[in-house]
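Cross-posted from the bioinformatics board.
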Amino acid sequence: MYRQTEIISDDSESPSPGGFGEAGDLIINVGPQHPATHGVLHLVITLNGETIKKVEPHLGYIHRSIEKMCESLTYRQFIYVTSRMDYLSAHINNHACALCVEKGLQLEIPHRAQVVRVLLDELTRIASHELWWGALAMDVGAFTPFFHAFRERETINDIMEETCGARLTMNYFVPGGLMADIHPNFQKRVKEFISLYKLKIKEYDELITGNIIFQNRMKNVGYLSAEDAISYGCSGPTARGSGLSCDIRKLYPYEVYDKISFNEVIENGGDSFARYMVRIKEMNESIKIIEQLIDNIPEGDFQAKTKVVLKLPKGEFYSRVETARGELGVFIVSEGGTTPYRIKFRSPGFSNLSALDHMARGSKLGDLIAMMGTLDLVIPDIDR
Amino acid sequence: MWSFSNIADSIHQWLNETFHPSVAVIFEMIIAGICVISLFAVLGLVLVLMERKVSAWIQIRMGPNRVGPKGMFQSVADTMKLLVKEGMTPSGADKFLFNLAPFIALVVAMLLMAPLAFAKNFQMWNVNIGVLYISAISSVSVISILIAGWSSNNKYSLMGAMRSGAQIVSYELSAGLSILSVVVLAGSLNLNTIIQSQADGWWIFKGHIPVIISFIIFIIAVTAETNRAPFDLAEAESELTAGFHTEYSGMKFALFFLAEYVNVFIVCAIGATLFFGGWMPFHIGHWQSFNHVMDFIPSSLWFFGKTFFLIFVIMWFRWTFPRLRIDQLLNLEWKYLLPISLFNILLVTAMAIAGWYF
């Protein structure tokens, strides 16, 4: 038997989540065990019939205190923990941390490592968006796209497995470059993937994008204006769907992003469909980036020469990258030792989730699930 | 030719010779009951396997392939599992209604089997108001869903039940009106007479455009009535976890599951009977020799072939389309399907009066 805990709200006027709202209100818990939250997110929803009056996200079910753990790990070690934050873009998380440490050490990394990092980042972005596409379709009730998305995602995972030795938590980027050189098959396999992808992306549009039911479910639903997107701190495709230019790859280019041509995808709709289209088009842009770089991987070292024990000088260091979900910031406060004094991650999912209540009010329960799908929430990224 | 009716006749004759006629009738009822229950069970097993295989085929998977040859006995194994599983009743539930609901679903599905003509001269109950009977009894199934949702004492279940109530009550109208168009053309409510009227061609061909329209409306409406995707709002896995049967487990859940599949079979059988001639072979007007060749294919094969084709279409819907939202669902019915079917029934009536059909 468990003891029922009473949740006391600060604001005694508004109904507390554990108590009762106005007459006729229905308070339901979506999660922490629910098929649509894709993890252990807990939403307390106040409903009037089918219409949503309030959404309260309750966090902390998968909080592993990664930030605190990082404080007792060396600058080489803490990167491995960050793969477990946003597990769908592990490479990009590692990238942000590696960049921050390199900034502190003022390390110039070899050109080969830079290009491979960008290539793997973009492959990760495609893999992440593939999974998002399947999961979103599942949220709106279509099961088949999930399997179609996984077909392509598997090929990316195979490429990763060959080069990095892992399929999910890669830990391939280390301060100073890459952990190992790329696999000899890497270029061939990536080219195979590009041709497969170009063949299959048409299926995606036929199956879901062009479907009238899907468009009706997505259009004019979950509207988020550009001002609200700024005030909630949204980033990534969520903000770009509202017409905000916020791509870190364009605004604060890192590695070789300033030397290659690609477009920042911006949609002005602000609704779920705009966010959907941003991600679909972003996959094509990523393919463009990969096509430009795959034949031009320069020869040379894959890792810069670094000391065995890394020591960051005293000071504060910040780096940011564009993950598949938005802006990931890494803030390191160093006291000059071998471990960070304090580390803070600015995760995109946390800020994007905060806009959910604003977007969902007044819409139907089914739309809330679709909106959560278009925010592309990864719960370990929110809780850390 | 081998036929169900010969077997039925010989059994009837033997019973009447051996026993007193009134005792013979009781025996015949028991035999018919056993037939319905076993058909019910077999249909459930076959359709669950078919759904899993069809979905696997659409989703580029293998589907069940471990139990028996090509996974044929997978649903038998699943049934065994469900039979021995504990059927829990939540402590806050209304126990009587909670346990009653799955049986109502089952009984309704069984009752609907009575007037179906499975083959030539093979029908359990040749009732002169067959179509009316079917549309009346099929409305009762919503009660089992409402009871299940209300008595579970679960908010998800309640929402699923309320959605289902709104949905089934609305979609029954256009389902009824589209059935009515065939009734108008055939001039009878008796399923046998309707099948006989298609001896020179099925209504979907004879009634051309208006009947095709009513067939499309029929297939949409029955998909909604059986709570199948894209109209599975009562279950809505990603929204309401499992909707009205969230709290059910074990055999009580299996009964709902079974009733759903048998309902799919029944609505497809009705669709096949009304629009594709039931057991009637593919006949074209007065092409005597062609019709004669078609007659060599047993009538039961024609019936089950057509029915399973329609079931496949409904499964195809489920694994292709996303789900509608509740307001879109009701808009579709009240703003589009109902006016179209009302206009269509007028068109069909004019056509029937003027004799503008083949």
